Amino acid sequence: MELKVCHLYPELLNLYGDSGNIAALIHIGKRLGLGVSVERVTLGDRKSLAGYDLIFIGGGQDSEQRLIAPEIKAFRGAELRAAARDGVVILGICGGYQLLGNYYETLGGEKLGFSGTVDFYTKAAEKRAVGTLRFRCFPKSGGISVRGFENHSGRTYLGREVSPLGAVTEGVGNNGDGGEGVRFLNVFGTYSHGPLLPNNPELCELILKTAEMR
After folding, report:
1. pLDDT tens figures, 79-114
2. β-pair partners for 55
3. How far apart are CA 182 and CA 118, in angstroms?
4. pTM of the model
5. DSSP 8-state code for residue 44
6. Which of 41, 73, 130, 157 is placed for a possible disulfide with 113 were both Cys, Cβ 3.0 to 4.6 Å?
7. Cis bond upstream, residue 195 (ω within 30)
8. Catalytic residue numbers?
C-alpha cells in the first residue's frame, strides 16, 4: 500500500529540521511495508487537500503564522476540517499545532484566526517555555513515551470535548496544566521538536498505521 502525504507550507514551517519528520515517515513506512509519497503544498497553491492519507504541518515562528493565517482561515481551514472528519491523519508540530486551533492571541491582544480544525486556542505569554519536553501519550495513542524539546511562547487551551495527546513528565507542554498536545479523531498536535518522529519511532509507527487503517 502507498500512503499519500501532504507536506503543507514546507517553505515557511520547517523549524528545527522538520523535514526530518518527512524522512522518518518514508524510512519507517518502508520498514512497515508501506510506500510513502510526499507532495509539497505551498502558500498560495490552490491544489486540493482531498485524497491525502496524512497531512503534515511543521513548526514556525509568529511571523510565519501571520503570513499563513489569512489563507488557512479563509481557504485551507474548511479542507482541514473536512479531512479531520473523514479520518485523515493530521500531524501539527509547534506552530503547525497552533494553526490547527481556532486562533492565536498575541501579547498585544490581536487575534489571528486559524483553521478551526480542532477546538482550542493559543495565547502568547511573556515567558517562553524552553527546554526538555517529555510526555506519555494517553492509552488512545498507545501509551507511548515521547521525548523532545519545546520552545514556544504560546499557551494552548483545549476545548471541553478535546483531550491532550498525553501527560507531561518534564517541561511545560500546553500551558503548565499537565497536558501536552492534542488528539482529536486522527488529528495529532504537539509542541515537541527533536525532530519528533526520528527521535520517537514508536509514535511514527502509530501515525503511519493509523493512516493505513483509516
Report:
1. 999 999 999 999 999 999 999 999 999 999 999 999
2. 6, 90
3. 9
4. 0.97
5. T
6. 73
7. yes
8. 94, 193
